[in-house]
Amino acid sequence: MKKIFGNLFLLLISAPVFALTTANVNQTWFYPDEQIILTLDSDGKQVDFPLINDIMGYRILSTSDAQNISIINGKRIQKTSRSYVFKPTKSLTIPAYTVMVDGMQQTTQPIEITFRKPTQTKAGDDYILQMQIDKPTFFLGDKANLKVIFKVKKTLSNNQINLSQPEVKDLLFIKGRQTNSADQDYNIVTLNFKVSASNFGTFTLPSLVATIGNQNRDIFGNFFSMRQNTLSKKKYSNALTLTVKPLPDALRIFGDFSIKASVDKTQTKEGDAVNLTVAINGEGNFEDIENFNLSIDNATIYSDDAIFDYKGWQQKFAIVGAQNFVIPAFKFDYFDKKTQTKKSLSTQPIKIQVTAKIQPAKRTVTQALIEIDNKIPVNDKIKYYYLLLGIVVGILIGVLVSIFRHQKKQLKNQSLIKQIKSSKGDKQLFDVLLPLNLTQLEPVLQQLEANIYKGERQKINKKEIINAIQSNS
């Protein structure tokens, strides 16, 4: 019997020890906007984790790997792990996953995680977080005012606070000023937001969360600047439901406006520009106002893109007309904030008078001479005639001299061309060309000089030399 137990003991200690693979989460219940971290662990030597892109439809936000080596009872144990981060919005069961460990498949156990609806703070709590909105229902293009109010009892030590920001698809939250105040029991911080929508419908603004404890930063500034090494705790606000109604008649602009069109002048000359400015002032969603298109017959129009801020909107034009023209009225439709009805605004047409530029009359030489002659007194006309005769004679002499010089140059060139054609040998041609001092002949003279003094045999083209002399005449 002892022998049997001994053999069994030897068999157990000699059998391979299988690696262990587990799955765990950082928490089995969660509040809205909290992240769940799923971690797969194995102490095998070679571990291949599965590729996980989502868990039950919730996208994996990030992954990370880690290794931990420990020595237990003299034995070295290596643990490998991979973590997957996701953000669910309701209760679910994380499925089992298969991991390849040392060439063998190992499967984890499913894990249930539970969504907990947050309990909002109430009057009398140590910490109170609440949201208030002045208009739970408003038109597209309008804005509502949201207040986020956080209260801390005066009897509590100041902890560091981290407050989540409101965030909803198709809603825009513009942060305004922060105010600090106090009442008999609480220190109070109020954050103000302007809320606008890019689409209509019903929207749920989920509870905001205030994390109280030793966090990285204090969004409230010096008011909560003291730090304590306490366990962080979370406080939740109420949720809100907002309804954004579409504007009637397919309108896109909401507010209270006025419109004006103005020009820098109402009279101009042909070819000069008239500068036009269209301005819309008031209160509303200026960013959604589209550019005006302007068309005027027999006029060229240049336009800039509109510019705007929270106070107003304007667009500029430059108009060049060939004749009188009228700038038409600009029409602007919107949903009026005060009357809660459609309203149309229009500018007045503007008449522009265009004056044609005076062109000087063209005169012939004979007309000019006659006009000059008529202005000269009778007694001075003889002197005038002599002056004209002298000018004519001078022009004729200049023409004759030019013709004579041209003919003389042609005769000289003909003689020179004859010498070039009849020249025998490079030396005689060099002597003929050297006195000419022509830039075009420099390469030829260098070739002739190389043939004469360096014994080279470069071919000289007399036809190109003649063409160069003729082109210079």
UniProtKB/TrEMBL annotation:
Coiled coil: none
Signal peptide positions (record): 1-19
Keyword Signal listed: yes
Source taxon at top rank: Bacteria
Protein's recorded name: BatD protein
UniProt KW ATP-binding keyword: no
Keywords: Membrane, Signal, Transmembrane, Transmembrane helix
Pfam families: BatD (PF13584)
Transmembrane segments: 384-404
